[in-house]
Design goal:
Layout: H1 11-15, H2 74-82, H3 85-89, H4 120-130, H5 143-146, E1 188-190, E2 193-206, E3 219-232, E4 238-250, E5 259-270, E6 275-287, E7 304-318, E8 321-334, E9 337-338, E10 344-345, E11 352-364, E12 369-382, E13 395-407, E14 412-425, E15 433-447, E16 450-461, E17 470-485, E18 488-502, E19 507-520, E20 525-538, E21 545-557
Antiparallel strand pairs: 1-2, 2-3, 2-21, 3-4, 4-5, 5-6, 6-7, 7-8, 8-11, 9-10, 11-12, 12-13, 13-14, 14-15, 15-16, 16-17, 17-18, 18-19, 19-20, 20-21
Length: 558
């Protein structure tokens, strides 16, 4: 629910991104789930998960991450690509899930009109529900894997808009636009491109605007979250552009206003049905969180954090076996901090550049399940020694993971991986960081109306705190989403994050609980509301805090 959490992970906000409420998070993390479906994530051991928000715990809440943008989904892209002109013009029904008191077994959605012979509803019922399995033609379950004409023979898809909140149920996808959720946006078609604009405007309240135990002040704000996505609709190749922003205006404490932006461009060039080249460029601007221990005490305005990156990957598939070679370059810089007394405190010792290379191998056992192994090497370079202890924080490291992804059962989809990560500072006076890696992004649908998302992530972030060699970050989150009607959705969830500053005594823990609700009038308009409670604890005296935040607003999209 994109409320103003503390310094910690985006896990809870990710869990509630569907309410479209902006969040302030700490730090410019570029972490991503090291699993893939073709989308290049700047730092991860792989690509951002296709189910993205289905609770993707990435980007630490920066604009453009799922928790700060929109509910626009891959399914919306599919609907816009496949919808007939009549479907585009048809207004959705009131969303009442009633039809003689029965639910559709596949979608949980029903029409308000009786079925007629030859109607699309009846045809789908015959094809997918009532037919006897024994009457269906036999076919090899691995047929798609061995056929160049099948969907699995196409180059890896990009998860079209990994920075957007995904509410995609693979079992509901269809080329028939009639089967799409009538409340999904359909976008605007301009030639061979689909444009998905969105704007969320909210009224927000927080009882701890400075995220502090000593200076606990409440304030209200007006917030705007605009975004636009442009996706190609070509038979081959692909181009995606996304822009998102966050503007907030606090009534009393203008120093806490947000001015955030993220832009991303991604393209894929298909050489053959088995080989593709993917490239990506991104830029983001955000402000540092008040709860960051590296923020100088007594700072008037929060320093800006700028991150720019580029990545390229080559994918090739040998029937069931596929390989990916990927490299990326990313630079993060901090603006100087201006203290309340007017003194300028330079922050350029915190600037760093990440260079990474990854090799991934995957084997598709059948049309549903793929196993993968991947390894990554990383070089992190700092511009100059830290002012805190005059030690240069440059380091090198590696990460190895293995896991499975796809439709793991009839009701569970996503990715789960385990592995090992290690980061070694160049300066021998700093400790090495080693950890077991647990990464997961799983979606469980116990019924057509209820979705449960489970997430976990392990990563190593940089720091310039005296004596510390880095941050070992561990995150876990859960979200439950239930649709009382297709137009009325409730969300509840929680996340837990632990940050260990290896080499120092500092350790931080954060627990976030959130509730959200969304009422959709039609494809274009919705009311969103949410509540989030944050409990932040630190071993450093005086830094613990609690925060309660509320938001209510309107979302417009096309």
């Amino acid at each position: 629910m994109q409320l103003r959490g503390g310094n910690a992970a985006q896990a809870a906000s990710d869990a509630f991104a569907e309410t479209q409420l902006p969040v302030r998070r700490r730090g410019p993390r570029q972490d991503g789930d090291p699993t893939s479906d073709g989308n290049l994530s700047p730092r991860d051991g792989g690509d951002a998960p296709q189910s993205g928000y289905d609770g993707d715990l990435t980007n630490d809440g920066r604009i453009g991450a799922p928790n700060t943008t929109s509910g626009i989904s891959n399914r919306a892209i599919d609907a816009a690509r496949n919808a007939s002109p009549d479907a585009r013009e048809r207004a959705p029904s009131d969303g009442d899930l009633t039809r003689e008191g029965q639910l559709d077994d596949r979608t949980g959605a029903q029409t308000t009109e009786p079925l007629q012979a030859g109607s699309p509803q009846l045809d789908r019922t015959e094809n997918f529900i009532d037919r006897n399995p024994d009457e269906l033609p036999e076919r090899d379950p691995l047929e798609e894997v061995s056929s160049d004409d099948a969907a699995l023979s196409a180059p890896p898809s990009s998860a079209a808009l990994a920075n957007l909140r995904l509410r995609t149920d693979p079992s509901l996808r269809s080329d028939d636009a009639y089967e799409q959720n009538p409340y999904d946006p359909i976008g605007v078609r301009i030639g061979n491109f689909i444009v998905l604009p969105e704007l969320t405007s909210t009224f927000a309240f927080t009882d701890n605007v400075f995220q502090s135990s000593q200076l606990k002040k409440s304030d209200v704000a007006v917030q705007f979250v605009p975004s636009v996505v442009v996706a190609s609709d070509w038979s081959a190749h692909e181009l995606e552009l996304s822009i998102a922003g966050l503007l907030s205006y606090y009534r009393e404490f203008s120093s806490e206003n947000d001015r955030e932006f993220q832009g991303r461009a991604r393209g894929r060039l298909d050489f053959t049905s088995r080989t593709s080249l993917t490239g990506e460029a991104s830029y983001s601007l955000t402000q540092e969180s008040r709860s960051d221990p590296e923020l100088p005490t007594g700072t008037a305005d929060r320093p800006n954090v700028r991150t720019s990156g580029a990545a390229v990957a080559v994918d090739h598939r040998f029937n069931r076996l596929s390989l990916r070679l990927r490299g990326n370059l990313e630079r993060t810089s901090y603006s100087d901090a201006v203290l309340l007394n007017g003194v300028v405190d330079p922050q350029d010792d915190r600037d760093f550049t990440d260079r990474a290379a990854q090799l991934r191998g995957a084997y598709q056992f059948n049309s549903d399940v793929t196993a993968f192994v991947q390894g990554e090497v990383l070089r992190r370079s700092y511009k100059r020694p830290a002012r805190s202890d005059d030690i240069l924080r440059s380091s090198k490291g590696f990460e190895v993971t293995a896991g499975v992804e796809g439709n793991l059962s009839p009701t569970i989809t996503g990715t789960a991986a385990v592995g090992y990560v290690e980061q070694n500072p160049d300066d021998v006076s700093l400790k090495s960081i080693q950890s077991v890696v647990v990464n997961a992004n799983l979606t469980w649908r116990p019924s057509a109306l209820t979705t449960v998302r489970l997430n976990a992530q392990t990563d190593i972030d940089g720091t310039t705190l005296a004596g510390a060699s880095g941050q070992l970050t561990q995150i876990a989150g859960i979200e439950v989403e239930h649709s009382f009607r297709r137009y009325l959705i409730a969300i509840a969830g929680a996340s837990y994050e632990k940050r260990d500053y290896v080499g120092s005594a500092l350790e931080e823990r954060q627990l976030i609980g959130a509730l959200g609700i969304e009422y959709l009038f039609n494809q274009n308009w919705a009311i969103v509301a949410g509540y989030e409670h944050t409990r932040f604890e630190s071993t450093e005296a005086g830094r613990d805090y609690h925060e309660n935040a509320f938001q209510i607003g309107v979302r417009a999209r096309r």
